[in-house]
C-alpha cells in the first residue's frame, strides 16, 4: 500500500455490541505497512470502551483526510452527528439512527474518494427493525445506497476464507420462504456477479463455481423435490452457455469435505444456513463477509454483535482484522 491511498472506513456497528472493543483491538494489532483506517462512531463511546479495556492509546477525533497522519498515534474516529448512549450488552433502538448514519457516511466517504473501502462492524437487525429500518440486513441496505451511483448494482453476500467461500442465493428470509424465492433468474444473476467479481477483484482467471441442490441428495432425481430439475439445472445450463465454469447441483451434505472443496473456488448454496453453517464451522475466526456486486468494496466480520460478552474484554477481533486485510487486498 502507498501513502497516497485513502484509508479504510470502518462503521461503528451496534454500539452495545462488541464492535467498539474489537475496533480498538484491530488498531492495537496494526503492523508496519497495514492500511490506515478510521471509525465512524461516537468518540465518547470509543473512549469509554478504551477505558474498560485498559487501552492506553489516544482516541483521536479527525477527518478522513487526516487519518494517515494520526493513525500511528491512536485510533482515528470521525464523529457522528447523532448522539450515542450505550451500555455494553444492552441494545437500544434509540441508537439505531447513529448506527445507520455510520453505514451511510462510510459509503459516502468511498464515493467521495475519502476512503477506499467500507468495513462494517456487526449490527443487530432486530434493534434496527424496532426503529423502522426497512431492509433485511446490511447487504440489502448497501445495495440500496449503491444505486445512487450505479443503478445496476446487485448485492451478493459471500462469506470468504482461505478454507472455504460460500455465496447463498437467498439470504435473510425465513427458511420456509427460501424455496418460494428461489428462481432460475436469481441463481443466474447471483452466479454472474460472483464470477465477475472473483475475476476482477480476487484475480481468478476462471473461477470454479459449485452449485448446491436445495433438497436432500440434490432431489434424488425428483424423488425428494423438483426444484433441482425445474430451477437449478436450467440455471446451470444457462451459465455454462455463457462460458462460466459451474457444476452441480451437488448434494449439500457432501460438498464441504476436504476433497470436495478442492474442486471449486466458491459454493453457491440455496439458502443462508446451508452455506454459512459449514463456513463458520471451518473458519469462524478467519471468515469475512464480502458484499459482491457493488461499485465499492465492503467487508465485515462473519459474526454478530455478541451482546452476551460485550464489554468483558474477551471478544476475538480476528474476523474484523481479516476483514481489514481483505478490504486492503481487494482495493490495491
Describe the structure in your own words.
With 332 residues, the chain is α/β, with parallel strands linked by helices. It is 36% helix and 16% strand. It contains twelve helices and twelve strands. A twelve-stranded mixed sheet has the order 3-4-2-1-5-12-11-6-7-10-8-9, with helices on both faces. It is globular and about 60 Å long. 50% of the residues are buried.
In short:
This protein is of the alpha/beta class.
Which helices and strands occur, and which strands form pairs?
Blueprint: E1 8-11, H1 19-28, E2 37-41, H2 43-53, E3 58-61, H3 67-70, E4 74-79, H4 96-111, E5 118-119, H5 125-130, H6 138-146, E6 156-160, E7 165-168, H7 178-181, H8 184-200, E8 208-212, H9 227-241, E9 245-250, H10 258-261, E10 266-269, H11 272-283, E11 288-292, E12 298-301, H12 318-330
Helix pairs in contact: 8-9
CATH architecture of the largest domain: 3-Layer(aba) Sandwich
Give me the Rg, rounded. Answer: 20 Å
Overall mean confidence score, pLDDT: 94
Total domains: 2
Helix content: 25-40%
Strand content: 15-25%
Q: Largest sheet at a glance?
A: 12 strands, mixed
Structural class: alpha/beta
Low-confidence stretches: none
Number of strands: 12
Tally of DSSP helical segments: 12
CATH superfamily of the largest domain: Isopropylmalate Dehydrogenase
Oligomer: single chain
CATH class of the largest domain: Alpha Beta
The general outline is globular
Strands side by side in the biggest sheet: 3-4-2-1-5-12-11-6-7-10-8-9
| Spatial gap, N to C terminus | 7 Å
SSE run: EHEHEHEHEHHEEHHEHEHEHEEH
CATH topology of the largest domain: Isopropylmalate Dehydrogenase
